[in-house]
Amino acid sequence: MKYVLIIGAKSELGFELASVYAKNNYNLYLAGRSIQELEDKSKALEDKYNIKSVLCELDVTDYNSHQKFYESLKIKPIGVIYLAGYYSKISSSSQNWSESLKTVEINYLGCMSILNIVADEFKGDRRGFIIAVSSVSGLRGRSKNYIYGSSKAAMIAYLSGLRNRLSNYNINVLTVIPGFLSTKKDQKKGYPRIMVSTSKQLANRIFDAQQNNRNIIYSSIIWYFIMFIIKLIPESLFKKLNIIKILDNNLETWKYEILDETSKIAKLLKVS
Questions:
Q1: In a 3-state reduction of DSSP, which class is residue 50?
Q2: Backbone angles phi and psi of 177, in degrees to 5
Q3: Least crowded by CB within 10 Å, which of 55, 88, 170, 271?
């Protein structure tokens, strides 16, 4: 009986991933702090796909409990998916240390703590897969969310090292780097459709990538090219630009922002 453990299963993406794995005959461990909110969804998945879905209480910031939590799983999972995440506006996290700490603990330290345990277990069995969801914010620091972005950057670096460590043990580590994700709470209206993915679309993309032993994926191919270009901009120019503002504005001002920022880049390149 194959089980997959989904940490942070309460999110919309968590449910869509649970659905796609259940559809493909995986049993589920759905883990989170408020598992009561998952009871109806868990039962619905069991009924629809004829699988077992077990709810597990887990606090990713309670590091001392992680070993005991993993040992409590009667049938060890063949795969672990880390979705737990926390976003705090820079106006809050830069002024409030508890917000900064919470961001880093949930997005990075909790991930590292639980996956270290999983990696040792999988290494002994010489099989398994690990998936963790980061963000394009982790690929280049910017003034709007550099604390959140730094926690996601740390996750990306950690997963890269973990992938290297486990590559000879038949264990795949997949890093997921979403751009704009449309959810019921945040539908990203006004953004170009090519840059926006739904939770269901991303869940299917993640499953296909895991089944094909991919290492890194973006939520859509356009983000690969966007971030490739952004990473190439020299820091001396990047710090003078508000280039990500292009991606954050609504569609009405989209073309004007592009023209404005392109003009700035051209002027700076002439000066340099």
A1: coil
A2: -120, 90
A3: 271
Q: What is the DSSP string of 68-120?
A: HHHHT-SS--SEEEE-------HHHHTT-HHHHHHHHIIIIIHHHHHHHHHHH
pLDDT in tens, 226-262: 999 999 999 888 887 765 555 554 444 443 343 354 4
- 31 and 161 in one domain? yes
Handedness of CA 35, 36, 38, 39 (dihedral sign): positive
- The total number of structural domains that make up the chain: 2
- Asked whether residue 202 falls in the same domain as residue 182, the answer is yes
Residues 194 and 223 in one domain: yes
| Same domain, residue pair 260 and 211 | no
CA distance 27 to 3: 5
CATH (domain of 173): 3.40.50.720
Rg (CA), the chain: 20
